[in-house]
Amino acid sequence: MLRHDMHLIIITPPDDILDEPEVVCRIVQQSSATVHLRKPGQSDRQIADYLKQVPAAFHRRIMVHDHPDLLFHFDLRGIHFSEKERMRSLPDVRQFRLAMPGCRLSSAFHRIADIPEPDGLFDYILLSPVFDSISKQNYRAAFEHADLKRFLSRTDDTVFALGGLDAQRAVTAASLGFKGIAVLGAIWGSSSPAIVAGQLSAVCRGIDTRLVHERHGPSGFRK
Question: For the whole model, what pTM was predicted?
Answer without folding.
Answer: 0.91
